[in-house]
Amino acid sequence: MKTKDKEHRRVVILLSAITVLLIVILFASIFYLRSSRPMRQARNEAIEIAERYTDLAEVEQFYWFTREETSFSIVGKDTNNNEIVVIIPKSGEKVSVYNQGDGLTEAEAKAFVRDNHQGQQIQKAALGIFKGEPAWEVMTKDDQGRLNYYLIGFKDGEEIKAVTEL
């Protein structure tokens, strides 16, 4: 009789643990989907605008840039297989279109920061408009955990501004 009670108790505990785990997974999934909704919506709207201004055929990368003003950037290919960059201000007005070959790629912007600011771990990069010009923002972390932001000109590859040790 006692063995049956112990088994029953174990089954109840196991089922309770599984139920709690499933509830945690469900709420974590809901939280993740809700928190990523603004990014997905901004990406979809940027693609829609880019398609109106260009013959965008393939999207390779989307960036959300928030330096002085918010802008969204699409890097992709047009119907002629040319690599293009479309930068859209948050307002949706004055969309800028560039040939990727006329400026730095994300990898080149990161390499510039890696070469000129050694000992920093690159966290991310974003492309947008800074003071009316296209620029890469490369965020790094130093060995003491401080964040650094480097703005690199898209067209000329020059460092525009550095915000360090945050």
Give the DSSP E fraction (strand runs of 2 or more residues). Answer: 35-45%
Order of helices and strands: HHEEEEHEEEE
Largest sheet: 4 strands, antiparallel
- What does the average pLDDT come to? 92
Q: How many strands appear in the DSSP assignment?
A: 8
Name the structural class. alpha+beta
Question: What is the global morphology?
Answer: elongated
What is the helix fraction of residues, given as a range? 25-40%
Uncertain regions: pLDDT < 50 for 5+ in a row? none
* Distance separating the two termini: 65 Å
| Count of discrete alpha- or pi-helical segments spanning 4 or more residues | 3
Strand order of the largest sheet: 1-2-3-4
Q: Cα-atom Rg, whole angstroms?
A: 23 Å
